[in-house]
Design goal:
heterodimer, A: alpha/beta, 8 strands, B: alpha/beta, 8-stranded mixed beta sheet, 11 helices, 13% strand, binds guanosine-5'-triphosphate, binds magnesium ion
């Protein structure tokens, strides 16, 4: 796709492979290629520059629609945290190993740098050394961490953190949850209970629920998003590990079907490796 | 399901005596879409569809099966053959200790699988494993393995004063030799296949320990990227097998076929849960069934 070329069937086949290879999904890829094929046949698109332009605008339309439709409640980035809600409660959810705990550290760092008092809540009371992992990050950032011994009901740790936050007038509380597969009903119920307890202790909590997705996830990412959004009030997505070779195309299918905005992108394992999602950069990288 | 889609596509085959190319082409379109939706890599889908087409075209329409059942059988058999093949057991030699390296991308399940596999080898293969984590990067990574070791009653080599993966490796190997452990499982840090420095680190650990097994731990819900990471790890480090984790999810698991077909190494274990007994041996027929939906 480098340089301006006329559009041949081979180019369209190559385009289909690039789109499928990015995990945007077969149907979406075939639909986009078909749309382009029709425009080519009607001579509305005559070279690859025009093709790329159309493709970009189609993808951008899908990716920017959710942010436009979700007004009011959710924030665009850590710089938008409403000052009148205290504590502002954020919860990180998602399946196992996607980067929830690491993302919390990165986000806490950004929020603290904005001048807020941040506290993290180690509500993963199941996995080996989960609280230890979050505590290492919290100590590095010099922020308080609320934890209980392994096996404690995670909702009880959420409760403790919110009581502590209210007592200390903390600005923001970020709750870490255990990784869980969305097809495990008892684990999804546990998550729903944590959210409900938060709402009982702080009006409207959790104010922000971020679903963390690994950029290398295939079509199952769509099912993950469906189930998590049914269980808790997901307000945004964090797409992690985009520093790898995976393109994270599944967020296109998720934006299209569920209208959840993509808030942040994880680009590494260090504290600064988190940026606000840019639809333009994301679409450009699909073709790199 | 694929079977229902093929039934529709092939209903005009009734009364014919052979599976014609036109019919097979229509069926292959359905199969291609089904496999892509199951996350099989598009290059592997091409190879698979070509292989199936070759077996199907010109075949006599069998009396016992309807045409779509016959195609489904060819597809299922081909997928099972591609997934299975060589021995999927851990290989042991008379060396002491036999070293097993656990490698893979971040978050795939290496540390948890280290626990599961050591427990399996101890209980089912009468081995005496020692575990060591050389993940000096991830916060509390070594703690995590220590906690797991406690939970399953398998010893974990610890040297908190060491912060270099290679020094840790040497010390653990020495300890295993001196204390008579016949197996040493090395849990390595998650890394990107494009991180040159960290891939070299794995080569150094391999050179230091001459492992009998290097297992690539891969997440079953990985999409098209599975081929890239598995191929790169295999080319740069050399893999002896694959562990497919989180199969207790509802991902179709096409990554299994992608990885097996591209690197040709056997899938030795399947992770089916977060607890340390949630480990199964690989059954190609079950995975084939799941991928085909
Ligand atoms: N390369 C890269 N690695 C990441 C990124 N985000 C997280 N990781 C790594 O992914 C691994 C898993 O991260 P965690 O934060 O423990 O993931 P988690 O979702 O909390 O995992 P569980 O709590 O076990 O479900 C760690 O090795 C992280 O360093 C990212 O954006 N890029
Ligand atoms: N449901 C399920 N979860 C699993 C399975 N295997 C591992 N996990 C979970 O996946 C998450 C990541 O597992 P780890 O063992 O920390 O992964 P890792 O590869 O060592 O991660 P890094 O060292 O950061 O690269 C944890 O929450 C595990 O409990 C599995 O087979 N099924
Ligand atoms: Mg975590
Ligand atoms: Mg690990």
């Amino acid at each position: 796709f480098r340089g301006k070329k006329t559009i041949s069937p081979e180019i369209l086949e190559e385009l289909e492979e690039i789109l499928i290879g990015s995990d945007i999904g077969v149907q979406t890829a075939l639909d986009l290629v078909e749309k382009i094929r029709q425009q080519v046949n009607r001579k509305l698109i005559n070279d690859t520059d025009e093709l790329k332009k159309l493709l970009r605008s189609e993808l951008l339309a899908i990716l920017t629609a959710p942010a436009k439709s979700i007004s009011g409640r959710a924030v665009r980035s850590e710089t938008d945290i409403p000052l009148d809600i205290r504590p502002y409660v954020m919860m990180m959810v998602g399946v196992n190993g996607v980067g929830k705990t690491t993302t919390i550290a990165k986000l806490a760092n950004l929020i603290k740098r904005e001048g807020n008092d941040v506290m993290v809540c180690a509500a993963d009371t199941f996995r080996a050394a989960a609280a230890d992992q979050l505590t290492v990050w919290a100590d590095r950032l010099d922020i308080p961490v609320i934890q209980q011994k392994p096996g404690t009901d995670p909702a009880a740790v959420v409760y403790d953190a919110l009581q502590a936050a209210k007592a200390r007038n903390t600005d923001v509380v970020i709750v870490d949850t255990a990784g869980r597969l969305h097809n495990k009903i008892n684990l999804m119920n546990e998550l729903e209970k944590m959210s409900r307890i938060a709402g009982r202790e702080v009006p409207q909590a959790p104010h922000e629920v971020l679903l963390v997705l690994d950029a290398a996830t295939g079509q199952n990412g769509l099912e993950q998003a469906r189930q998590f959004t049914k269980t808790v009030p997901v307000t945004g997505i964090v797409l992690t590990k985009l520093d790898g070779t995976a393109k994270g195309g599944i967020v296109v299918a998720i934006a299209r079907e569920l209208g959840v905005p993509i808030r942040y992108v994880g680009t590494g394992e260090q504290i600064d490796d988190l940026t606000v999602f840019s639809p333009e950069e994301f679409v450009n990288s699909l073709f790199e | 399901s694929l079977s229902e889609k093929l039934k529709k596509t092939l209903k005009t085959l009734r009364g014919e005596s052979k599976l014609t190319e036109a019919h097979i082409d229509a069926a292959m379109r359905e199969i291609r879409i089904a496999l892509l939706e199951a996350d099989v890599n598009f290059k592997v889908v091409k190879q698979f569809v070509d292989a199936v087409k070759e077996k199907a075209v010109g075949q006599d329409v069998l009396q016992a099966l309807s045409p779509h059942q016959q195609v489904v059988k060819i597809v299922f058999d081909e997928m099972q053959a591609m997934l299975g093949g060589e021995s999927a057991d851990i290989e042991f030699t008379s060396k002491t200790p036999n070293v097993i390296m656990m490698v893979g991308l971040q978050g795939s399940g290496k540390t948890t699988s280290t626990g599961k596999i050591s427990r399996f080898l101890s209980q089912n293969r009468k081995r005496h494993p020692l575990l060591v984590s050389v993940d000096v990067y991830r916060p509390a990574a070594r703690n995590q393995l220590a906690v797991i070791g406690q939970a399953i009653n398998i010893p974990v080599f610890e040297a908190p004063e060491l912060s270099d993966p290679l020094e840790l490796t040497r010390a653990a190997l020495k300890d295993a030799q001196q204390r008579g452990f016949d197996t040493l499982i090395i849990d390595t840090a998650g890394r990107l296949h494009i991180d040159d420095e960290l891939m070299v680190e794995l080569q150094q650990i391999k050179a230091e320990t001459s492992p009998t097994e290097i297992l690539f731990v891969a997440d079953a819900m990985t999409g098209q990227d599975a081929v890239k990471s598995a191929t790169e790890f295999n080319e740069r480090i050399g893999l002896t097998g694959v562990v497919l984790t989180k199969m207790d999810g509802d991902a179709r698991g096409g990554a299994a076929l992608s990885i097996k077909q591209m690197i040709g190494k056997p899938i030795k274990f399947v992770g089916v849960g977060e607890k340390y007994d949630a480990l199964e041996q690989f059954h190609p027929d079950r995975i084939a069934q799941r991928i085909l939906g």
